[in-house]
């Protein structure tokens, strides 16, 4: 009994780890239920009676949208199914089973009924979403939030996020200086689309990536909404040497003027962690205490040389 319980716990733990490790599915408008319902000429709930390789015999149980007067409730249809390999990498491919109810988006072509994408397993939540699409005034134009411009240095990662809203959810595309980013054959550029936002990531930014970027959100109705941001990629900044380490800085003491005599200036040299005096013309010494009687007309100032802590001389 303990062994079975331990095995069950391990199995549950493995399932949880697999769920956490699974990559997050990105948004695809072709798989979005709202878009499929909005574009489909007819939508209905049907029960599968029999299956073939590329078709299914179904009975209509409930109609959400008619194409003219088609279909009728309780009608039995021969439904042509789409091929297995569809856009979005087969994300919404559902294996049909007999005597199960599915939501079908379809259109009538002559005397044939053709499914527009694989049928979806019927749930109460799905039915509620489809009914919302067919309510009057459902569709709305796209809106986008302003984006922030980015300044960075070469080699860094640039991330632009565009938040948009519409009913059905908008289709978002990116442009660089007016040209579609989708046409840029660079692996450094990556676009991640979600239901109401899109992210453009530029890895290892270069100087040629500096440009004006646009996010265009197109809804089912109205013109596209546009948000723009400038990206500036600058060369790396090299740190300039601190002059205080070589030329000295004012001495860190309450009254620096009291240390040097005869009007000398007290300077602190950080590189050797010592202080020295910058003497006016005519004076020298460690604290400018000596009068210089030699000719120093070619020099504007006199410095006292000392042996620093790093066994180097400075003046």
What's the helix and strand layout?
Elements: H1 2-21, H2 33-39, E1 42-51, E2 55-65, E3 76-80, E4 101-109, E5 112-115, E6 120-121, H3 124-133, E7 140-144, E8 150-153, E9 158-167, E10 171-176, E11 179-180, E12 189-193, E13 197-202, E14 211-218, E15 225-234, H4 243-247, E16 249-250, E17 265-269, E18 274-279, E19 283-284, E20 290-291, E21 302-303, E22 306-307, E23 313-314
Parallel strand pairs: 3-5, 8-15
Antiparallel strand pairs: 1-2, 1-4, 2-3, 4-5, 4-6, 7-9, 9-13, 10-11, 10-14, 12-13, 14-15, 16-17, 17-18, 18-21, 19-20, 22-23
Helix pairs in contact: 2-3
Disulfide bonds: 260-277, 279-288
Organism: Helicoverpa armigera (Cotton bollworm)
Domain EGF-like: 247-289
Q: Can you put this structure into words, describing what you see?
A:
The protein is mainly beta. It has 3 domains: 29-134, OB fold (Dihydrolipoamide Acetyltransferase, E2P); 142-234, Immunoglobulin-like (Sandwich), CATH 2.60.40; 249-291, Laminin. Helix content is 13%, strand content 38%. It has helices spanning 2-21, 33-39, 124-133, 243-247; strands at residues 42-51, 55-65, 76-80, 101-109, 112-115, 120-121, 140-144, 150-153, 158-167, 171-176, 179-180, 189-193, 197-202, 211-218, 225-234, 249-250, 265-269, 274-279, 283-284, 290-291, 302-303, 306-307, 313-314. It has a 5-stranded mixed beta barrel with strand order 1-2-3-5-4. Strands 8-15-14-10-11 form a 5-stranded mixed β-sheet, with no helix packed on it. Strands 7-9-13-12 form a 4-stranded antiparallel β-sheet, with no helix packed on it. Strand 1 (42-51) and strand 2 (55-65) form a beta hairpin. The longest helix is centred in the first third of the chain and has 20 residues, at 2-21. The N and C termini lie far apart (87 Å).
């Amino acid at each position: 009994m303990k062994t079975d319980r331990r095995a069950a716990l391990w199995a549950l733990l493995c399932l949880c780890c697999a769920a956490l490790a699974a990559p997050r599915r990105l948004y695809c408008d072709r798989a979005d239920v709202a878009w499929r319902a909005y574009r489909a000429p007819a939508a209905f709930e049907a029960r599968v009676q029999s299956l073939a390789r590329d078709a299914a015999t179904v009975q209509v149980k409930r109609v959400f949208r008619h194409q003219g007067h088609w279909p009728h409730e309780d009608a039995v249809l021969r439904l042509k199914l789409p091929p297995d390999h569809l856009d979005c990498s087969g994300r919404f491919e559902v294996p049909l089973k007999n005597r199960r109810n599915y939501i079908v988006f379809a259109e009538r072509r002559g005397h044939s009924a053709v499914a527009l994408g694989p049928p979806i397993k019927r749930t109460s939540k799905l039915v509620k979403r489809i009914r919302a699409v067919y309510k009057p005034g459902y569709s709305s134009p796209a809106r986008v939030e302003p984006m922030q411009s980015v300044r960075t240095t070469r080699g860094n990662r640039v991330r632009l996020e565009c938040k948009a809203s519409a009913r059905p959810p908008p289709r978002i595309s990116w442009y660089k200086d007016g040209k579609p980013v989708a046409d840029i054959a660079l692996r450094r550029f990556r676009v991640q689309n979600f239901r109401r936002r899109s992210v453009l990531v530029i890895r290892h930014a270069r100087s040629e990536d500096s440009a004006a970027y646009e996010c265009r959100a197109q809804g089912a109705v109205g013109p596209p909404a546009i948000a723009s941001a400038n990206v500036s990629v600058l060369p790396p900044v090299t740190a300039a040497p601190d002059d205080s380490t070589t030329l000295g800085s004012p001495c860190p003491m309450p009254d620096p003027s009291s240390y040097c005599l005869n009007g000398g200036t007290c300077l602190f040299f950080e590189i050797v962690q010592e202080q020295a005096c910058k003497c006016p013309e005519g004076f020298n010494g460690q604290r400018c205490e000596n009068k210089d009687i030699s000719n120093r007309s070619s020099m504007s100032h006199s410095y006292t040389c000392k042996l620093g802590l790093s066994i180097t001389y400075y003046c």
